[in-house]
Design a protein that fits this description.
- The chain has about 475 residues and is α/β, with parallel strands linked by helices.
- It has three domains: about 140 residues, Alpha-D-Glucose-1,6-Bisphosphate, subunit A, domain 3 (Alpha-D-Glucose-1,6-Bisphosphate, Chain A, domain 3); about 230 residues, Alpha-D-Glucose-1,6-Bisphosphate, Chain A, domain 3, CATH 3.40.120; about 80 residues, Alpha-D-phosphohexomutase, C-terminal domain (TATA-Binding Protein), CATH 3.30.310.50.
- Helix content is about 35%, strand content about 20%.
- The protein has 15 helices and 20 strands.
- The strands form four sheets. The chain has a seven-stranded mixed β-sheet, with helices on both faces. Strands 16-20-19-18-17 form a five-stranded antiparallel β-sheet, covered by helices on one side.
- A hairpin with a 6-residue loop joins strand 10 and strand 11.
- The longest helix has 18 residues.
- It is globular.
- The two termini are about 30 Å apart.
Length: about 475
């Protein structure tokens, strides 16, 4: 195993053939299988469209078999489909083989617990310790069953969500431009949109994993989709990442509006619409599951680096916004602990616990269309009607200790509200600065948001200056 394999609390990732090999995949899959078997000796396995996926799936099956687990293979599907399949089959856990938005040369294993949520630090640490300890496993003819209906069940559940008025959306007959970056999202996203009565024009809908551009759905990567929106007169453009858990929007004029608006729109769709309840506590129209409580209308959860546009959307409907450390599992656990009605991340990841507490692009698409259908307003109109903000990001080398940097920032901005859950976040009513150590690189990340780019840059520059003072020999980079 190379020293550049990135090992995190909920999985591993690396460059195919260098960091991530069949042997490494089998070793970590066996460790996860040993962990899952303590609950149920059954693991759900799925993958995105990357070309290394089939070989890594075979290696994962071998590792799981060596741990004494049987496998349900859902095939090439969105990551949220894998998460839902874990719950559906009451499996001991799941593995999604995907590097999400990473460049084409990467792949990864993401470990999912029996509740359909990625592993947290405690359980992930146990899996990693099992991988370090190794072991030969046992010789076992692993039983592999296929599940060809996982995506269909996923889409059926999205269309049954309490906040989605399918007939109202169908009546609008939206034209939607779709870019799936040749990942796992082309067929399921097209199918969902068409079931919602949309006319779909698409690019990069093939599932061969040959990404034609940088796969992260950020504005600078959506030029081709913007052109398609303008050429076809679409009501909006939708872009998803390779494993279909994040969604970004392009407005009717072909302008990418930024990923934070996806969650802001979803919050408005859920908080502004009717929410019928059944006697068993689940939302009307959704599958009855004993683990689903009656969610509170008054709480929205997002991470510390999510835009104020989400906070404004929550406040507009009288909801309280709770922020967590960066990372999907932190948001998911807080949603369930607080019984929040919706949550997510500013990267386009919407988490609607009426279905499951995981980022889900099909859910995000349905909620965005619900908002457009209910309000009768275009994407650009909704953006223009709310306060606008600018976000500026930078990074700096990380010294031996960040406490002096945090202390200096708190002295410099004594009037700010400080949050120390994840690094240091300093906030005012209309701006904030978040300084935190990266989970994946030996750097400090600085992100600021304010009403103007100039004000956001001032906050970032002050943070960079204090980082430089703490590490004067290092060059600070944007």
């Amino acid at each position: 195993m190379t020293d550049t394999l990135m090992v995190g609390v909920s999985g591993i990732r690396g460059i195919v053939g260098k960091d991530l090999t069949d042997e490494v995949v089998a070793r970590y899959a066996m460790a996860f299988g040993a962990w899952a078997k303590q609950r149920t000796p059954l693991v759900v396995l799925g993958r995105d469209a990357r070309s290394s996926g089939p070989a890594f799936a075979r290696a994962a099956v071998a590792g799981l078999g060596a741990a004494g687990c049987d496998v349900i293979d859902v095939g090439l599907v969105p990551t949220p489909t894998v998460q839902l399949a874990v719950e559906h089959h009451r499996a001991g856990g799941g593995i999604a083989i995907t590097a999400s938005h990473n460049p084409i040369e990467w792949n990864a294993l993401k470990f999912i617990g029996p509740d359909g949520i990625f592993l947290d630090a405690t359980e992930g640490g146990r899996v990693m310790q099992l991988a370090v300890e190794g072991g030969q496993g046992r010789s076992k003819a692993v039983k592999v069953a296929t599940d060809d209906r996982a995506v269909e069940r996923h889409l059926d559940a999205v269309l049954a969500l309490p906040a989605v008025d399918v007939e109202r959306i169908r009546a609008r007959r939206f034209t939607v431009a779709l870019d799936a970056v040749r990942g796992a999202g082309g067929p399921p996203m097209r199918a969902l949109l068409e079931r919602l009565g949309c006319s779909v024009t698409g690019i990069n809908l093939e599932t061969d994993g040959q990404f034609p551009r940088a796969p992260e759905p950020v504005p600078e990567n959506l030029g081709e989709l913007s052109t398609l929106v303008r050429r076809t007169g679409a009501a909006l453009g939708i872009a998803v990442d390779p494993d279909v858990d994040r969604l970004a929007l392009v407005d009717e004029n072909g302008t990418p509006i930024g990923e934070d608006y996806t969650l802001a729109f979803a919050v408005r769709a859920v908080l502004g619409g009717p929410m019928e309840r059944r006697n068993d506590g689940t939302s009307a129209g959704t599958p009855a599951r004993s683990s689903v409580p009656a969610f509170q209308r008054s709480i929205v959860v997002c991470n510390l680096s999510t835009s104020l546009v989400v906070e404004d959307a929550a406040r507009e409907h009288g909801a309280e916004l709770i922020r967590t450390p960066v990372g999907e599992v932190h948001v998911a656990r807080a949603i369930l602990r607080l019984v929040a009605v919706i949550g997510g991340e500013g990267n386009g990841g919407v988490m609607y616990p009426a279905l499951h507490a995981g980022r889900d692009a099909p859910v995000a698409a349905a909620l965005v269309l619900e908002l457009l259908a209910r309000t009768g307003r275009a994407v650009g109109e909704l953006v223009a009607a709310a306060p606008r903000y600018a976000i500026v990001k930078a990074k700096a080398p990380r010294g031996p200790a960040l406490e002096p940097v945090y202390a200096a920032l708190r002295r410099r901005f004594a009037d700010a509200q400080a949050d120390t859950q994840d690094g240091l976040r300093l906030s005012w009513q209309d701006r904030w600065l978040h300084v935190r150590p990266s989970n994946t690189e030996p750097i400090v990340r600085l992100i600021a948001e304010a009403r103007t780019a100039a004000l956001a840059r001032e906050l970032v520059e002050e943070g960079r200056r204090l980082c430089a003072a703490a590490s004067p020999s290092e060059e600070i980079r944007h």
